[in-house]
Amino acid sequence: MQETQTPKTLYDKLFDEHVIRTEKDGTSTLYIDRHLVHEVTSAQAFEGLRIAGRKLWRNSSIVATADHNTPTTGWEKGMEGITDPIAHLQVSTLDKNLADSGCAAYFPFLSRGQGVIHVMGPEEGAVLPGMTIVCGDSHTSTHGALATIAFGIGTSEVEHVMATQTLLTKKMKKMLVRVSGRLQPGVFGKDLALAVIGKIGTAGGTGYAIEFAGEAISALSIEGRMTLCNMAIEAGARCGIVAVDDKTVEYLKGRTLAPTGSQWDKAVEYWKTLRSDEGAVFDKVIELNAEEISPMVTWGTSPEMVAPVTGKTPLPENQPDPVKREGWERAYKYMGLEPGTPIVEIYPNSVFIGSCTNGRIEDIRAAAYVVKKLGKKVAPSIKTALVVPGSGLVREQAEKEGLDQIFIAAGFEWRRPGCSMCLAMNADKLAEGDRCASTSNRNFEGRQGKGSRTHLCSPAMAAAVAIEGHFVDVRKIF
């Protein structure tokens, strides 16, 4: 009699295929297919290898770029355009480490393919369904949009993967976030991500791998799914994941590092098995209706402090949890806002469009659409309005489509690719007290510069803020 197999979740399938061995306490040695590397967390790891007399176990697994410290202006000066001495040292050290190791898939500062690692990795075809992927960066979860197990690791773990191509880890619990219906025009993957975080909180996904499924997820582009998985980490999860469908295959076709010929056909045949089985059991299931989701804006200092653009900032006295209530009160003080303020009456003085969350071509197109549709220049109250493509290829494509000219004509700054104002590790920082409509992923105190105030939103919303000077319901534009 043939044994009936227990239905598996997608996460279980991927994890089980990469386990080398599992100890009695549940600790598994997991094989790692792809190691994404940037300048911030790799220097100590390479130095550790040198001290121990070790080499990279498989240098072909590494895809690398400089992104956190690279400037978005002054490229005509070459390396001298990196004026901060620590940033300059980190980028030049990455150059040396990768030259010494013989890594072939390196996209250095000033090169055509350079960009934010979580943008340029997928667009080069370095991220393929079925892989395990790590990087010394928490937003590695982005790559789960292509049916991978992808998560951030610490510096010591970076060295361990470099030396052994493995990682010691424990299996996570599984959460299914099922989103029915379809998002309204003017509502994007970023809004969906913020709605999920608003529902379950920033600790709601702790200990889980989140699989996103349902009609709304199928309707999202791959770029939208990347935004959603990127923000899974902000819900407390270590990774987000989406099953393979025709959009996945189409997105990867022809990418530089993707398979070709007969290998492509075999890969696609395997990729199409990468979905949760019918009847697979999840530890937790969250249900949302996409049609009920409005454009979302954060008002506080955590991604869970979020409200629909048609709403108001909440009243602390309505928060029954004393710890959260205290957090709200502190956030209001830091953000310089009053409880009960309509979101549309919040007036940023800065706008940032970019990052590993929303620096892809689809994001640039959405923002440009809003700017062109409104037909006006950046509001006088906006002192900084940056558009930073997530990679050199995104910038190239946007310029081919004339999107850069739309922004420039309206008074935006069209920048070179990099992490930019997402985390203020480079020259792009907010001044103390500045309030920014940002398409990045985090809004905690000082994220974009000391004393800065960050409101997370979609690229379309950020573009509208730049023109109108305050948050608006962008559904009226679409």
Features:
5-stranded parallel β-sheet, Aconitase, domain 3, single chain, alpha/beta, 19 strands, Aconitase, Domain 2, 3 domains
Describe what this molecule looks like in 3D.
The chain has 478 residues and is α/β, with parallel strands linked by helices. Helix 3 links the parallel strand 4 and strand 5. The strands form 5 sheets. Strands 5-4-3-6-7 form a 5-stranded parallel sheet. A 5-stranded parallel sheet has the order 17-16-15-18-19. Helix content is 33%, strand content 17%. The protein has 16 helices and 19 strands. The mean pLDDT is 96. The longest helix has 17 residues. The chain has 3 domains: 161 residues, Aconitase, domain 3 (2-Layer Sandwich), CATH 3.30.499.10; 120 residues, Aconitase, Domain 2, CATH 3.40.1060; 177 residues, Aconitase, domain 3 (2-Layer Sandwich). Helix 6 packs parallel to helix 8 and helix 13 packs across helix 15.
Topology summary:
Blueprint: H1 10-18, E1 19-22, E2 27-31, E3 34-37, H2 39-52, E4 62-65, H3 85-101, E5 105-107, H4 117-123, E6 132-135, E7 149-152, H5 155-164, E8 166-170, E9 173-180, H6 189-200, E10 208-213, H7 215-219, H8 222-230, E11 239-241, H9 246-252, H10 261-271, E12 284-289, E13 296-298, E14 306-308, H11 322-335, E15 350-353, H12 355-358, H13 361-374, E16 384-387, H14 392-400, H15 403-410, E17 413-414, E18 435-438, E19 453-456, H16 459-468
Parallel strand pairs: 3-4, 3-6, 4-5, 6-7, 9-10, 9-12, 10-11, 15-16, 15-18, 16-17, 18-19
Antiparallel strand pairs: 1-2, 2-8, 13-14
Helix pairs in contact: 2-3, 2-5, 6-8, 13-15, 13-16
